[in-house]
Write a structure and sequence with these properties.
about 450 residues, Deoxyribonuclease I, Chain A, 6-stranded mixed β-sheet, 10 helices, about 20% helix
Amino acid sequence: MNQSSSGNSAGRDGLSGGDQRAAQSQSITGRNARRAPGFAWWAICVAGAAGLAVAGGAIFSNPGTVAQLVNGGASSVAIAQANTPARAQAAAPAAAQPGGKKTDAPAAPAVDKPAASTGENKFGRPTPIAKPAGKLRIASYNVENLFDDKDDPALSGQFDDAKMLKPLEHRKAVAKAIRAVNADVLALQEIESKEALLAFRDEFLKGMGYEHVVSIDSGDDRGIEQAVLSRYPLKDEKIWKELPLGGVQPERVGSDRNPNAGEPLVLKRSPLRVTVSVPATATAKMALEAGVEAQEGKGYEVVMFVVHHKSGGRATEYWRDAESKKVVELVGEEIKANSNANIVVLGDFNAEPRSNAMKTYFDSGLLSAFDGAGPGDLSAVTHASGRIIDHVLMNANLRAEFKPETKFVLGTPNRVNNRDWRNTPPPEGWASDHYAVVVDIVPVDQPVTSEEAARKPAGTGN
């Protein structure tokens, strides 16, 4: 349903946020298996005595029992030739790719409970980096089930949303984080509907200047969607709901029988494609503040692909691998149509840097804003479980305008020592199980150097 303005759909992410996404074993639909613990990340984080080490979201063990979680070497879509040349060079067409689908387990209702503790803030930065003059700030934030109190009659039974309102204190904490980030363009995940987002904006984000809003039903069974809040006009929004990824669902998912075995594999949640259009007057002002020369009368555009890939740990890697290939194919088509396009792919990938899914993106020529962050760099962690699964990826054109010195992840309070999220209420100040990922760019098209066009991932970054 390609309707950016109506926002009639409702729903929430299948695992109620990233704490639950650490679950490894679940039904492919996830409807019947409620976030099975699988590989308990909270236990790893307190298992130093067992000889485990958590480093930058990747996990290692001397016996190699968990090294299997560091994935690599998957085949990927090759659109690098289309993605890496200088602006004036025509891009090669992207290779066609296979693709796939299904759904996550319904989120447990968020309940207002007494905070278990004051929490701790050990990931990301405790305070934001102020937005520099002359920069366009772009951020991605999975806000963990931002639902309103309105019952969607289209959802019933296990998908009933009547009691899924995000607790007031959590909504306030999300708003506090958004205000601290102060992004000009904010990509969001786990939004119930455009109506829910507008209500949240009007109540908690007054004065932020987010006059432009896009939120579209992404095809998730419970209606969850990606969205964008922007201070600048948005246009050309598009989704690919239920887009075939090629192939079929496997017989088993992890150790469980797959009830959807043999069904076509399709996009779990369609990416949201939208163009941010910065007017020439604003571009000229920021160029002057940044000390760069801007072409008179020329604005600036960024094409965004906001993603929220299938959750579920190693058991559903096959699905994320197929999704990543399809998104890379869509990006390749965008570049083929306009080799000068500034492109950013951002959101909740539910995949760590060394996974096959991320390798697919990196091999296509897209690089992470946090490329090169070393193991153990807690400032680059994007999820309460200690993992790096939210990313901001840029093509060579956009990297020419990227200012890496002010990138950051904004940490918010987490459960102390990553205590079991099933039995430990969120702490005081809890906003989401994900953290906002923030980048700054100078919104003036710059030439792409041959070095930048040919740059490869460092291999240890976000």
